[in-house]
Amino acid sequence: MTVPSLASSLSDSVTVAAASLGLPDLAPQVRRSEYADFQADGTLAAARALRRQPRELAAELVAALPAGGPVASARVAGPGFVNLHLTDAALLAQAAARLDDPRLGVGMPEAGVTTVIDYSQPNIAKEMHVGHLRSTIIGDALVRILEHLGGKVVRRNHIGDWGTQFGMLIQHRFEQPGPSAADDSATLRQLATLYRRARTAFDTDPAFAERARQRVVALQSGDPATLAAWRDIVAESTRYFTEIYRQLDVRLSDADAVGESAYNRELPQVAEELERAGVAVVSDGALCVFFDDIHGPDGRPTPLIVRKSDGGFGYAATDLAALRQRVAQLRADRLLYVVDARQALHFRMVFDTARRAGWLPSAVSAVHVAFGTVLGPDGRPFKTRAGDTVRLADLLTEAVDRARGVVAAKNPDLTGAALDERARQVGIGAVKYADLATGRARAYAYDPDRMLALTGNTGVYLQYAHARIRSILARADSGDAVVDTDAVLEPAERALVLDLDGFADTLTEVLAGHEPHRLCGYLYRLAQTFTAFYEQCPVLRADVRQRGNRLALCRLTGDTLRTGLHLLGIEAPEQL
Ligand code: ARG
């Protein structure tokens, strides 16, 4: 059984104490404090509600706390907080319990909960760019965390594989056949070139534009040759995306790819139901949903367009069909969409429409997990010198190349395939960590020098901290890490036990706000606390009792760092 964190056991004790005072509604917030081990808040709000003096109420609470428990001392502080100091024995008992728990105190709060998560979502015949990087990495971390917490996760890679642009692409391919799909490697680059050429022809040659429009009609009506060409293009892009996912080590497979086209057959029905229910109305020939609180800059209402005036369906209709299916067939309790913050309005409208249509019952939550833009190293929009979008594939190659330099400098004996593998772990880890460590709503500058720094809040720093602990442990016997609960703790040891104890609660917080950066911040603090501990407390040279305790703390820290990094999708090699 997982042992609860110190913070949560304390909050139980405080709740019991409050109930004994006849204050069952006092909801204590027990959290780490700068001035004590923990601090219990909640008395302020309770005092206000009861029209009592907060310090007085806090003093009663302190008096009601059970004696002889883990609390060494409880004191009223400031306007009416309660500062709690724990006994060394309580901290050591907690460390001992953790040592026997492979889950490091993390429970299964997500058991029985199904989450459908929409992420990555690249577009066929286009390059994946840094926007898709964010969605892929954040989505992958959330998937890993949800699964670790016992949840059932259905991944949906909502690939952009449909739309009028395929008319010009296919038409151009028919008119100027290039190398066939069979010769791989450079195909996506060729596809992207094809896309640009087709676009230019479409914009400059009215006759071609007309033929492309005819081709859209042929595609929509299922003309076999046109469909075959479309399938070829989709297959080529998909192979390329799969290659990137493999390089990134994210858990997205072909089975998770359910592109926009998969919902085509349901679109007419979606429109019909919305219209019948009175949720959507025809306006200027288009089928629209209006919202009381959504207006354009001109003050006129901005609708969600379900069906365009030419009868075609677009992005919104597809998302509505997908949402309906995710709730009705996949039985989602929670829907997550990891998509660029610029699509906030779209998702607000889609969710609201679905609620009104009855497709999204109130028991099911729908969240747009929005993220900010990735900027260039100079803080300006991220473009190549020629002004093109930066290819994700190039960025990853560059990161791994630079990481090879960092690894080789630290470890000159490493060569060949082993060096390549380490460079991949470090380079990809650096890219992922730099992305995840930024609060997701914020924009950040993509800076390969900074993300590969050995010090500071980087993936490499954490991988290095983990490897250092592994090497300390390798110099001792595995049976040497034993906790002696009668020992007296140094301040640096207490700090480390308290930080280790926060792992499970951190994951709960990450999930509550869908914010992987909280896990990054936690791991970074843990590594720093460990460094301070290691500087102040000799481990291998300590006397036998202290050595056992300190080795136990090393092992717990190493395991927590490794598990945490894995939950972020980052590997933790034994050596760096
Ligand atoms: N393919 C779109 C893009 O690249 C993102 C799709 C987001 N997901 C969704 N269900 N709308 O911008």
UniProtKB/TrEMBL annotation:
Family listed: Belongs to the class-I aminoacyl-tRNA synthetase family.
Q: Which SUPFAM superfamilies match?
A: Anticodon-binding domain of a subclass of class I aminoacyl-tRNA synthetases, Arginyl-tRNA synthetase (ArgRS), N-terminal 'additional' domain, Nucleotidylyl transferase
Predominant subcellular localization, coarse grouping: cytoplasm
Could you identify this protein by its name? Answer: Arginine--tRNA ligase
Q: Which positions fall inside the Arginyl tRNA synthetase N-terminal domain?
A: 8-86
Q: Which UniProt keywords apply?
A: Aminoacyl-tRNA synthetase, ATP-binding, Cytoplasm, Ligase, Nucleotide-binding, Protein biosynthesis
EC top class, as a word: ligase
Q: Name one GO biological process term.
A: arginyl-tRNA aminoacylation
Nucleotidyltransferase found in the keyword field: no
InterPro entries xrefs: aa-tRNA-synth_I_CS, Arg-tRNA-ligase, Arg-tRNA-synth_N, Arg-tRNA-synth_N_sf, ArgRS_core, DALR_anticod-bd, Rossmann-like_a/b/a_fold, tRNAsynth_Ia_anticodon-bd
PANTHER family in the record: ARGININE--TRNA LIGASE, CYTOPLASMIC (PTHR11956:SF5), ARGINYL-TRNA SYNTHETASE (PTHR11956)
Q: Does the keyword ATP-binding apply?
A: yes
HAMAP family xref list: Arg_tRNA_synth (MF_00123)
Pfam families for the chain = Arg_tRNA_synt_N (PF03485), DALR_1 (PF05746), tRNA-synt_1d (PF00750)
Q: Domain of life here?
A: Bacteria
Locate the motif 'HIGH' region. Answer: 122-132
Q: How does it assemble?
A: Monomer.
Q: Could you say which EC number(s) this protein's record lists? A: 6.1.1.19
Q: Which reaction does it catalyse?
A: tRNA(Arg) + L-arginine + ATP = L-arginyl-tRNA(Arg) + AMP + diphosphate
Domain DALR anticodon binding, chain residue ranges per copy: 462-576
Report the locations given in the UniProt record: Cytoplasm
Q: Name one GO cellular component term.
A: cytoplasm
One GO molecular function term?
arginine-tRNA ligase activity
* Gene symbol of the encoding locus: argS
